[in-house]
Every structure is written in C-alpha cells, then in structure tokens.
Specification:
With about 70 residues, the protein is mainly alpha-helical. Helix content is about 80%, strand content about 0%.
Length: about 70
C-alpha cells in the first residue's frame, strides 16, 4: 500500500474505524490500491453517507415535522 493511501485512511476516522472492524480490507488494499474506490463505497454504504440516504433522511424529517404540525392543529 502506498504512503498516500495510508495517509488518507488514517486521516478519516470513519475509514479507520471500518478498517478496524473489517480487517480484510487491509489485505485487499495492500494487494491492489485500486480497491480504494470499492472501500470508499463500502464505507458510504455502511455509514449511510450516500446521496440517496441523505435524501431519504430529509424526507423522513419532513414527514415527522408534518405529522407534528398536523397534530398541533
């Protein structure tokens, strides 16, 4: 694994945590640094950081607020 990739992994706390929980990523990233993109996608999926997850959370929050306002009427 190259030094630039190691630095990226240690700077981001979510990446470091995912590496601790799923140590097989060390092997994958050591063998092929191009697996970094797959690693980032796995991290985004695990921690719900994708755009669709953010949109769904916003819609849920709007629904909750709408429900509260309806009960106050």
């Amino acid at each position: 694994m190259d030094v630039f990739l190691q630095q990226k992994l240690t700077e981001d706390t979510k990446m470091a945590e995912l590496l601790k929980l799923n140590s097989y990523w060390y092997k994958e990233l050591n063998r092929n640094s191009e697996q970094y993109k797959n690693f980032v996608n796995a991290m985004k999926e695990k921690y719900h950081l994708k755009v669709t997850d953010k949109i769904n959370n916003a819609i849920d929050n709007i629904d909750i607020i709408t429900g509260i306002l309806d009960t106050l009427k």
